[in-house]
């Protein structure tokens, strides 16, 4: 038996509206809230490093609906027409567009494996060689430094003198301990004096730097313990990305005609 024409038309109309409803998560005061808004919200959370769980999906939906309710009320009050709103929208627009520019630039100019290797080699060249486990005593006066050297030669404990006399707040409390360090980690005058010492030796004269007068003792020497490339690759990539972006920004600023 054939269905009446009117019933067929009604059924067809109902089927045609299903996709439209499926595209919305709610209708607030007659205004549809598109599902795309929920998806965008979830994507933003995911970009921040958080996993969007099934439990969160319901919370996101409620948040989007609440925002629509609040937006409608704000618009009803005419708040979207005041100057403060327009200024804030303009600043937000600028921030979003600039962020998109930087992301596009980074995508089109990625850090290459060759650049990563070159940066690691540079780091290795600067920090390779020998490392020194040293202690020091820092005082502001040369005469005091000479007296302390004499006291240590007579039997005073280097560590005890450092704790009592050193003006270096970082190492003084630890008996002057600087832990393991590459000579490049120190100011030139300090490192030049340190590398002349053998294991267990102390400077016989105060070493003058911009910080004051140092008495240096080397407790041990070893070959530098450099991290493997894979262990520091992420840090190198981040550093190079920052350098590339800074250069890009500087070049844009310099090429711009500002009157």
UniProtKB/TrEMBL annotation:
Pfam families per record: Rotamase_3 (PF13616)
Any GO MF annotation of the entry: peptidyl-prolyl cis-trans isomerase activity
Catalytic reaction equation(s): [protein]-peptidylproline (omega=180) = [protein]-peptidylproline (omega=0)
Start and end residues of each stretch annotated as Disordered: 162-183
Known EC number: 5.2.1.8
Signal peptide residue numbers: 1-22
Keywords for this protein: Isomerase, Rotamase, Signal
SUPFAM superfamilies named in the record: FKBP-like, Triger factor/SurA peptide-binding domain-like
Domain of life: Bacteria
Ranges of residues in domain PpiC: 129-220
Homology family: Belongs to the PpiC/parvulin rotamase family.
Protein name from the UniProt record: peptidylprolyl isomerase
Lineage: Bacteria, Pseudomonadati, Pseudomonadota, Betaproteobacteria, Burkholderiales
